[in-house]
Amino acid sequence: MKFLVKDMDIATGGVKVALLNEKDANKLDLHHNDRIIVRKGKKQTTAILDIAESSKAVPPGKIGLFEEVLDATSAVQNDTVEITTAKKPASVSYIKKKLDGKALNYEETYAIIKDIVEDNLTSIELTTYIDANYIRGMTLKEIIDSTKAMVATGSKIEIKKKTVVDVHGIGGVPGNRTTPIIVAILVAAGLTVPKTSSRAITSPSGTADTMDIFCNVAISIPKLKKILDRVGGFMVWGGAEQINLAPADDKIIRIEHPLEIDAEGQMLASIMAKKASVGATHLLLEMSVGKNAKLKTHKEAKLLGKKFRVLGNELGIKVAFFTADGSQPIGNGIGPALEARDLLQVLTKDPNAPKDLREKSIKMAAMLLEFTSRVHVGKGKKFAARMIENGAAYNAFLRIIRAQGGKELTQDEIPIGKFTHSFKSKKTGRIVEIDNKITTKICRVAGAPSDHGAGIYFYKKKGALVKAGEKLFTVYSQNEEELGYAIECAKQFRLMRIE
Amino acid sequence: MKFLVKDMDIATGGVKVALLNEKDANKLDLHHNDRIIVRKGKKQTTAILDIAESSKAVPPGKIGLFEEVLDATSAVQNDTVEITTAKKPASVSYIKKKLDGKALNYEETYAIIKDIVEDNLTSIELTTYIDANYIRGMTLKEIIDSTKAMVATGSKIEIKKKTVVDVHGIGGVPGNRTTPIIVAILVAAGLTVPKTSSRAITSPSGTADTMDIFCNVAISIPKLKKILDRVGGFMVWGGAEQINLAPADDKIIRIEHPLEIDAEGQMLASIMAKKASVGATHLLLEMSVGKNAKLKTHKEAKLLGKKFRVLGNELGIKVAFFTADGSQPIGNGIGPALEARDLLQVLTKDPNAPKDLREKSIKMAAMLLEFTSRVHVGKGKKFAARMIENGAAYNAFLRIIRAQGGKELTQDEIPIGKFTHSFKSKKTGRIVEIDNKITTKICRVAGAPSDHGAGIYFYKKKGALVKAGEKLFTVYSQNEEELGYAIECAKQFRLMRIE
Questions:
Q1: In Å, how far are A165, A313, A349, A361, B331 from A374, measured between CA atoms?
Q2: Contact B425, B472 (CB under 8 A)
Q3: What is the 3 state secondary structure string of A233-288?
Q4: Rounded (10°) angle between helices B298-315 and B264-277
Q5: What is the Cα–Cα distance from B452 to B416, expressed in whole angstroms?
Q6: Which chain A residues have a beta carbon less than 8 Å from that of B51?
Q7: Which of B259, B262, B482 to mutate: most A Cβ within 10 Å?
Q8: CB contact A64 to B (< 8 Å)
Q9: Do B64 and A31 touch (CB under 8 A)?
């Protein structure tokens, strides 16, 4: 059947949508979420059908097309297009199979992941895949298959090196910006570190958000390979269009996030797919354990660690673990710019550098140095500390940011929120708790991560003695109103407990 | 934050959608599917956020509003509206609870069903509720709660009668239009029968589609009560806007249908909620059993029947069962108009009336007559047959359709598809099978149910002897092209098996 095109002037940024008037849909026995083939001349695409109940949106005889469909068919306003019914992709029957509790094989998983990446699934189908994996659980075989399918449907950075190092943190702890320091140390030590990181979804900053302060984090893969050859490492945003590692992950997270679920199998596959896509041979997995971290107990961390190791074996990635105290934020500054200042202090040996951040970064770098046999077992910490002391790590950091189009900055050149409010202690005592979740909440309300200068600076951390009237922390924001909300939030919830 | 309104000129017919440019969304830390409050003056509503990646769809500083949001806020193009973040409704946490395998209580189920009816859930959340119920299963208590919540969130037809009769078929068998005949017999026998039916979703016709041929099926509840007082019964479409019984069901089916799932607990609740909404006291449940029917074995039917009885007990509805042969279509005509002709033949004692349809309708009416103690046990069949023979049932049918704005029609006055094609037997033998699914497929391809005149007429049914060259069935359509597709379909698949 033929229809006149109405340009709806909407992009979904994903699924291709076409709108028919209810009367036409009834005539063709088409329903909401059915698939149709839209054809103009030799160009055609499959679209998901939405039904317009009013003639105002789409009158009978017309078809409303979203940008993605217009692009795929080169159709414009008032063109004539031909509509036929399309079959559901086979992946929908595999999703149904998983829903019914049957395990999927590689071909089935690959078909699903491919259709996720190509936006061929409706939100109902994608949600059902995620729900089914969440409730039914994924077998080890399914997790391996899913990882491989995510790698196969994304870009890869092919690196011809015997040893390729990566590091990953299982989050929930604000601050904790160890990655740039570790990468700098390892690159200074001559290791190859193709580091891709994510942006913050629910946290005050991701490594990619903090690296934004220093340089470009969205760089094409051919350029990244050149940087790697020249400098030995890079630090970029893996989700950038130019990079696009394991893109299924982002689409899955778009469903998981509003439901606040984080299915273990899915998480394992997503993380390891990104490591496999850069050809990592050695991965250090940091697991922060604490009441307000993602992992509550060491037992939980150990169990999860085992699964990472098994999956790593399948992918040819050796996995080591670093279990860390996740009971409070790491570093003094929280938020993209304040974390950037912190890590610069560590690398430039500033006397005010946060000790916890420095210590943790050195320990983790040391583990990787020993794990890759770059230094002898037992010598890692001393070696890593020396890389900072002799300026080699900072030089490596500068080489990386220059290669990524940045330039050297002093800490004072990093802009932070111009509106500030400091909180003072009401009593004398010892800080016994700093709440991760409330830290995150205040920073985000103040504008982090999109406002890079927003966040919190802590003058004292857990265990410190404070006097009544002494400054505890300062909240920063670029926006006076948002600072106001953040202050309200800090007053309403107890960020610090002093006894 | 304030935004200028862009009228998107789209109605979803459900969820309220607002579109912000990606830049504004980032500034406000808002994500796809987040909820926002849109306020203009004193009017406000909650909307689900979509993100526009291009300025063409929605530029920074503007907010694109769909019809439902414009209506709720009385905002128009270029008005200024105020946006604040809205909390997720509590029902989302209950859905999460069910996803995690915990049973829900009445308050939680009610909150979910209410938010479904009021379009407060995103497609991700609603899908997850359905997936969770499907995989986790529903306890009897949850099914009861869900039924009660569906009744409480829809319209009710309050009837002050001691005995209120209803009948329901668990489908999968094409044709099978017994309901209008049964209702006519029962109303002729003086019983109260407030019959609401559905339209076809996947079948060639629903009772509401066939009744369309005779009269109006979308009538307001006050009018229906008057009809009931005067005539004793009606036959309408329960999903009509004016009636709106248990409206949660339709919204749930919109998700289940594309996934091709039919969760048992959900189905029990949906059916019984509609019966409870009309105050039924006696329900006859027809269960067709057969290879291509929904229920494959008598054991399955018995198990399901038990669940209906238990649920009926809780709602004060007595449930009786009629297990029927579901191995082939019932009646000769399949499709809205052809079924209308069939039932008219039965009621007007036409010698060509399909015997299977007449027999089945009499048996089912008999069960209800005995079940409600209208006649003594063992006397039902004779009584029901007499109601047809003496014209009382047909008179009752005429009273009902006249009350619903229709007029008497002869069979020939019922228009059927003007394009036809007859299939003849290639060999002499006995018909051993007529496939339900293929019957349905051919009828729908020919245009049923939206093309009321489309469908199949069978000259012979299972068990009959046929000679080579003898007519087996005719396919009808209003549209020559669609008839062509239906013929193709009939040639490709084996509708009848002759041995």
A1: 11, 21, 24, 17, 83
A2: yes
A3: EEEEECCCCCCCCCCHHHHHHHHHHHHCCCCHHHHHHHHHHHHHHCCCCEEEEEEE
A4: 40
A5: 7
A6: 13
A7: B259
A8: yes
A9: no
Strands B318-325 and B282-289, sheet pairing: parallel
Closest residue, chain B, to A441 (C-alpha): B29
pTM of the model: 0.88
3-class DSSP assignment, residue A129: helix
Amino acid at site B179 = T
Please state, in angstroms and rounded to a whole number, the distance separating the CA atoms of residues B474 and B267.
34
Smallest CA–CA distance, residue A134 to chain B, in Å, is 8
What structural domains does chain B harbor? 2-85 (2.40.40.20), 90-137 (1.20.970.10), 165-403 (3.40.1030.10), 415-498 (3.90.1170.30)
CA dist B253 → B113, B148, B258, B266 (Å): 13, 18, 9, 10
Residue found by looking up tokens 């659980």 in the block: A137
Helix (H, G, I), strand (E, B) or coil at B233: strand
Q: Output the six-digit token pair for A32.
A: 């909401």
Contacts of A9 in chain B (CB under 8 A): 56-57
Window B:10-49, CB contacts with A under 8 Å: 10-13, 19, 26-27, 29, 31-34
Give the helix ranges, DSSP H, for B413-452.
436-445
Q: Please indicate whether, in this complex, the C-beta atoms of B10 and A10 are within 8 angstroms of each other.
A: yes
Q: Name the 3-class secondary structure at A427.
A: coil
Long-range contacts of A462-465 (CB under 8 A, 24+ apart): A462/A327, A462/A328, A462/A431, A462/A432, A462/A433, A462/A434, A463/A430, A463/A431, A464/A430, A464/A431, A465/A428, A465/A429, A465/A430
CA-nearest of A52, A471, A7, A409 to B54 is: A7
Measured distance CA(A294)–CA(B256) in Å, rounded = 34
Full pLDDT tens readout for chain B, 499 residues: 899 999 887 877 778 999 999 888 877 778 888 899 999 999 999 999 988 877 878 899 999 999 889 999 999 999 999 998 888 899 999 999 999 999 999 999 999 999 999 889 998 999 999 999 999 999 999 999 999 999 999 999 988 899 999 999 987 899 999 999 999 999 999 999 999 999 888 899 999 999 999 999 999 999 999 999 999 999 999 989 899 899 999 899 888 888 888 889 999 999 999 999 999 999 999 999 988 788 889 999 999 999 999 999 999 999 999 999 999 999 999 999 999 999 999 999 999 999 999 999 999 999 999 999 999 999 999 999 999 999 999 999 999 999 999 999 999 999 999 999 999 999 999 999 999 999 999 999 899 998 999 999 999 999 999 999 999 999 999 999 889 989 999 998 899 999 9
> Is A435 noted as a catalytic residue in this protein?
no
Query: In which residue are the tokens 């610069």 written?
Result: A344
Which residue in B has a C-alpha nearest to residue A448's C-alpha?
Answer: B29
Exposed, middle or buried, B2 (CB in 10 Å: 0-12/13-18/19+)? exposed
Q: Is B264 on the interface with A (CB under 8 A)?
A: no
Euclidean distance between CA atoms B240 and B220, whole angstroms: 9
| Angle between helical axes of B355-371 and B179-188 (0-180°, round to 10) | 50
Chain B interface includes A254 (CB < 8 A): yes
Residues A442/A496, Cβ–Cβ less than 8 Å: no
